[in-house]
Amino acid sequence: MNKQEFVTAMARDEKIPIWEASKAYEQVFQALGKYLSKGEEIKIRNFGTFCVRKHKPKAFKDFNTGQKKELPAHLRPVFIPSGTLKEKVQNGGK
Fold first, then answer.
1. Which residues lie closer than 8 Å to 68 by C-beta, 6 or more apart?
2. What is the pLDDT of residues 7-27, one digit of tens each?
3. What rounded mean pLDDT belongs to the chain?
4. DSSP secondary structure string, 25-66?
5. Helix %, strand %, coil % for the chain, to 5?
6. What is the pLDDT of residues 29-58, one digit of tens each?
7. What is the distance between the alpha carbons of residues 55 and 12, in angstroms, rounded to a whole number?
8. Is the Cα torsion angle 18, 22, 28, 29 positive or negative in sign?
9. Is the dihedral of CA 28, 7, 48, 78 positive or negative?
10. By the 8 A CB rule, do 7 and 23 touch?
11. Among 8, 25, 48, 69, which residue has the fewest nearby CB atoms (within 10 Å)?
12. What is the CA radius of gyration of the chain?
């Protein structure tokens, strides 16, 4: 499901205009990006946790050139699903 399909489904399920569902979608994801970029952890009960993890530098071999290179230390956003969400997925959304 892509963004447009998701927004359309959300509008249909909640019986709201598509523009309103689209605005809500944009606001949620802009806020997630904003707070994750500040290093904050976002916990949503019965859904999961969004956080940022630090990754150490890592050496690797470039298979195109055969040269050894290093991936610098970096931050990566991570989502950890809650037990409730995992259970819903296993039970087909029930």
1. 59, 60, 61, 62
2. 999 999 999 999 999 999 999
3. 94
4. HHHHHHHHHHHHHTT--EEETTTEEEEEEEE--EEEE-TTT-
5. 45, 30, 30
6. 999 999 999 999 999 999 999 999 999 999
7. 41
8. positive
9. negative
10. no
11. 69
12. 19
